[in-house]
Design goal:
five-stranded antiparallel sheet, 37% helix, 406 residues, disordered N terminus, Rossmann fold, eight-stranded mixed sheet, alpha/beta, 14 helices, 16 strands
C-alpha cells in the first residue's frame, strides 16, 4: 500500500508559487532538462511507479551527460548558481594551506588529495601559498568525476599557477594507501540524501512519483530497514518520538563515502568542510521540514523538481553520523568546530597584518567577515578532522573544540 504525503505536497505547492520569479532557462537548457526528466520518468516507471528520492537526487545531479554536475553548465561563481568560500575569497584557501601544513609535516612524503575540486580555484590558491611557505607536497591529486569540471580545473591551474601545474594529477577514484591530507569542501552535502516523513507514527521513505507530466512527492511503504533503524535510533537519543508530519534527511551516502575514504587513507587526516549540525540540533523538533535546498542562479528554494539537471540539490550534514562512521572505520575525530573558529584559529586575520593599502585592507576585512560572521558562513559551516596514524594538532581546532557536542 502506498500513502501520499498530502500535507507535505501542499506545502511544496505553496512554495512553488515563488518559483515564478526565477530567471527562465535558455531554450537549450530547457531541452536538456526535458531529456533528463524523460529519463527520470522512465526510471520511475521501471521501479513500479515510485523512485526513492535519493535515487532521483543522484540522477538529477550525476546522470551522465545530463545531470547537474555532468552536463557542462556553469555552476560556480557570479555566472553560476552559487558561490563557495574559495570563490568568495582567496584568504579561505590561503589560510587552509597553512592550516594543513602540520599534517604534511607529520606524515613523511604526504601529499594532498582534493575530492570534488569545483573550478580549481582552491587547489590553485593552496598550491600558491604552499610554494610561498616552502611547504609544497610532491603531488596534489584531484578526484573529479565530472569531465566538464575537470577541464575547468585544468584551465584554472594552468592560468593561475602554471609553474606548479606539473604537480597536479587527476584521478578517477580514491588513491590506495594514500598518505597526507584528504580535502573535501562542500562534498558531503551534494551526495544523495534519503528523506523520510512521519505518517501514522511511523517513518516512511519519501519517494518521487510522476503524474500528469509532473514529479510529485509520495511516501512509500516503510521497507527501508536501514532508514527505519536510524530514525528509531535518533528518537531514542532525543528521548522523544518525532511528531506527525516531521520531515528530514539522512545522508547514508556521505557516511558510506567516509568509510570508503578511510580505507584508502594509510596515514594523515581527512578535513571535511560543509554546512551541517550535530545530531541534537539537526533533528530538533522545530526543524520539522528538513534541510533540503536547491540553488539556481543564486536563488535558494525548496523544490527539487524544478528543471531537473539545471539546479543544485543539497542537504545539511549530520556531523554526529559522520563521526560515528569515521570511528567505525578506524579513524579518530581530531577536531570539530565552526568554520569561523577554524579560520580564526588558523590565522586568517594574519593577512591583515602589514597591509598598508587602505582599499586592500577594507577588502580583506570584508572577505573575512563573510567567511566568519554567524549570519554569513561562520556558524552554518563546520570543519571536521578525521585522523589515522597522524599525531598532528591543528591550531584551527584549538580555539573552540566542539567534539563534546557530537
Amino acid at each position: 500500500m502506498i500513502k501520499s504525503s498530502d500535507d507535505f505536497s501542499a506545502r511544496l505547492r505553496a512554495a512553488q508559487k515563488s518559483l515564478s520569479s526565477l530567471p527562465a532557462p535558455s531554450a537549450d537548457a530547457q531541452a536538456l532538462s526535458a531529456e533528463l526528466s524523460a529519463r527520470l520518468a522512465a526510471a520511475i516507471a521501471a521501479a513500479g511507479g515510485l523512485l526513492p528520492f535519493w535515487r532521483y537526487m543522484d540522477m538529477a545531479l550525476h546522470e551522465p551527460g545530463l545531470g547537474y554536475y555532468s552536463a557542462g553548465c556553469r555552476k560556480l561563481g557570479a555566472d553560476g548558481d552559487f558561490v563557495t568560500a574559495p570563490e568568495l575569497s582567496s584568504l579561505f584557501s590561503r589560510t587552509l594551506a597553512r592550516a594543513i601544513q602540520p599534517i604534511l609535516a607529520d606524515v613523511e612524503g604526504g601529499g594532498i588529495l582534493e575530492v570534488g575540486a569545483g573550478n580549481g580555484v582552491m587547489a590553485a590558491e593552496i598550491l600558491a601559498q604552499l610554494a610561498v611557505d616552502d611547504a609544497l607536497p610532491a603531488q596534489y591529486c584531484i578526484l573529479e568525476l565530472s569531465a566538464e569540471l575537470r577541464q575547468r580545473q585544468q584551465q584554472t591551474i594552468k592560468e593561475r599557477v602554471p609553474e606548479l601545474a606539473a604537480r597536479v594529477r587527476w584521478c578517477d577514484s580514491l588513491e590506495k594507501n594514500f598518505s597526507g591530507v584528504i580535502l573535501a569542501n562542500e562534498l558531503l552535502d551534494a551526495l544523495p540524501a534519503h528523506r523520510f516523513v512521519i505518517e501514522g507514527g511511523s517513518a516512511r521513505e519519501l519517494c518521487v512519483a510522476y503524474r500528469d507530466d509532473h514529479f510529485v512527492w509520495q511516501a512509500g511503504e516503510s521497507c527501508n530497514e536501514r532508514l527505519i533503524s536510524r530514525v528509531q535510533q535518533i528518537e531514542q537519543e532525543n528521548g522523544s518520538r518525532f511528531a506527525e508530519g516531521y520531515v528530514s534527511e539522512i545522508l547514508f551516502a556521505a557516511e558510506d563515502w567516509v568509510k570508503t575514504a578511510a580505507k584508502s587513507l594509510s596515514s594523515g587526516m581527512m578535513l571535511l568542510l560543509d554546512y551541517g549540525q550535530a545530531r541534537s540540533v539537526y533533528y530538533h523538533a522545530q526543524r520539522n521540514q528538513g534541510s533540503l535546498s536547491c540553488h539556481y542562479r543564486h536563488r535558494m528554494h525548496e523544490d527539487p523538481f524544478y528543471y531537473p539537471g539545471l539546479q543544485d540539490i543539497t542537504a545539511h550534514v549530520d556531523f554526529t553520523a559522520i563521526a560515528d562512521a569515521a570511528l567505525d572505520a578506524g579513524l579518530s575525530v581530531a577536531g570539530y568546530t565552526t568554520q569561523a573558529h577554524f579560520l580564526l584559529g588558523s590565522g586568517i586575520t594574519d593577512w591583515l597584518t602589514g597591509e598598508t593599502d587602505p582599499l586592500s585592507l577594507l577588502d580583506y576585512s570584508s572577505q573575512i567577515k563573510k567567511l566568519t560572521l554567524p549570519q554569513e558562513m561562520g556558524e552554518t559551516f563546520k570543519v571536521m578532522g578525521l585522523a589515522k596514524n597522524c599525531g598532528a594538532s591543528l591550531p584551527g581546532f584549538m580555539l573552540q573544540d566542539m567534539r563534546d557536542r557530537l
